[in-house]
Each structure stands twice: as structure tokens, then as C-alpha cells.
Amino acid sequence: MFIRMGKLTIKTCPICESEQLEPSLTCVDHFTTGEMFCINVCRNCGFMLTQNAPDEEEIGHYYETNDYVSHTDTRKGLIHRIYHLARRFMLWRKSLLIENLTHKKIGRILDYGAGTGYFANAMKQRGWDVRAIEPNRSAREFAAANFKINIRSPKAIKTLRKGSYDVITLWHVLEHIHDLNKIMEQFNSLLSEKGLLIIAVPNHTGYDAGHYGALWAAYDVPRHLWHFSPSNIQQLGAKHGFILAERHTMPLDAFYVSMLTEKQMHHSLAFLRGLFVGLIAFFNTMAHKDKSSSLIYVFRKK
Cis omega before residue 135 (within 30°)? Predict the structure, then answer.
């Protein structure tokens, strides 16, 4: 990877290291600038990535909008209110999943990319020893004010004790991280021998992604630097000493993403249109897990 004039110009695939990258889609930044960004695909492994996205120094400007709910906690508009309702259910589901996977009622957990701190707070309330990291300052301040949680900046990862975490979670975060390989190495070193790495990311091979094509809201350029398929994320995990143990669907994501896509397309009745597409996606996911709008991947150390 090479940083040039504030942009991330990618010459080699971070997963297979092939240089066979070619344009695949052109997508629009609907949240902030209206800029167009090209998504390239690796001809060798099929991995998709946003080309010429802002580098780590510049990307923060693309999150500075009240519409970015994971950082601002906005409840403005019907779609964002639905997001908050779905989040309540998912906080319960995520917490239960972790306790079932670890067979622990308490343990040590690192939530990386904690946003405004809702999940970190949910685990804290269940008795877990929680550490949380989030690059956005406003989101960290929200968590401190509302949950009394000290969420730290990404630089703090260097100070964490190696081999000390039972679980590391990233809920729709990995697609935002500039240096994929470095962060995966760090996660491996921080986890205990039987620790779990739990990653949730959008799935560009899902039904709703195929339905909307380049307009699919979960491409979310340039904030989403990487666009994962189930096979790609398994390859990335294996590259850094992880075995994919389980996959779990996130069926509610298709509804939210479809509604958001319809809104960005300026369609009338965006809520109902998105609900209809979400329902079709839901039934597709019941028959084919890989058609889920997003997937939760559970990795164990080799």
C-alpha cells in the first residue's frame, strides 16, 4: 500500500498479495461529499476494495455528519429510529452468543471500534471486564458521558497485555481499518490460547447487495475500505493464524440496509420498498446462509 496526497492507493491485494486489481464498481459517498469512488476487485482471489480512499489522516472528515448513527447516536428520521430498535435486540443476541461460545458468564473482552459504547456497556452490565477502543473522539465522549466507560483511542492497543483476552469483537468495524494485516496480527497476539475473534461485516454476495448493485448502501464508500465475501474473510483469518469455527447470520441488517438504500435513491415510500426487499432477503437467508446481508464470523486461534 502507498499513501499519496492523502489517499490510499492500493497496488497489491492485502489477502493474496496479487497485483491483479481491476475496476469493478463505481459508488457514491451519500453521507458527506457526494464524491465517486471506484471499487476494485482482485482477479486472483475476488477480494473487493475501495481504491484511492482517504488515508488515516483524512478519513475522519468523512464521518463528520449527524447521519452517521454509530458515531452520533442520532434518532432523526424513521430509518434511524428503526436502527435503534434493532440494536436493542442485537445487543441481547450478541451478548448471549458470546456467553454461549465461551461457556463463560464473565471474562475479559476487547470491543474494537466500540462506537458510542452500547455493546461495551451491555457486556459491562453482565459482569464482564471490558476494554474498548474507538477512533472517533465524539463517540468516545458520548460513551463516557452516558455509560461512564473510558473508551480509548486506537493507539492504546499497543499498551494492552498480550494473551489476556477471552474475546475480541468487531461489529461492522473491520471494513473501516486501513491496515488489515497489522490489526489481525495484533488481535492474534492479544487473545488467550482459547480466545475467540468475532467479526461482523457486510456481505457483498448477499441477496440485497445483488439486488441493488453499486447503489447498495453497505458499500458505504469511502468509509468502507474493504468489501468481504465469506471466502475472503476466511482467507484473511487463515493468513493470520485463525480457523473459522462458526458463521451466524444478521437477518435484520437486510431491512435496515435496504431501507437506507431506497432513501439514498430518493424513492418514494422508501420504508415500504426497503421492507419488501428486506423480506425477500430474509427468506433467501433462511435457505442460504451466505445470502445474509451481513455475517458474524467466529474465529479460533490455530
Answer: no
Greater model confidence, 89 or 153: 153
Cell of 5: 496526497
Burial of residue 201 (CB within 10 Å: 0-12, 13-18, 19+) is: buried
Q: What does pTM read for this prediction?
A: 0.93
**Interatomic CA distance for residues 249 and 292, integer angstroms:** 6
Q: What is the pLDDT of residues 192-226, one digit of tens each?
A: 999 999 999 999 999 999 999 999 999 999 999 99
**Cell 473491520, residue?**
174
Q: How far apart are CA 24 and CA 7, in angstroms?
A: 19
Q: How far apart are CA 252 and CA 83, in angstroms?
A: 9
Please state the φ and ψ torsions of residue 136, each to the nearest 5 degrees. -80, 120
pLDDT grade for 12, boundaries at 50, 70 and 90: very high
Provide the 3-class DSSP secondary structure of residue 58.
Answer: coil
Rounded Cα distance between 207 and 251, Å, is: 11
* Rounded Cα–Cα distance for residues 292 and 250 (Å): 7
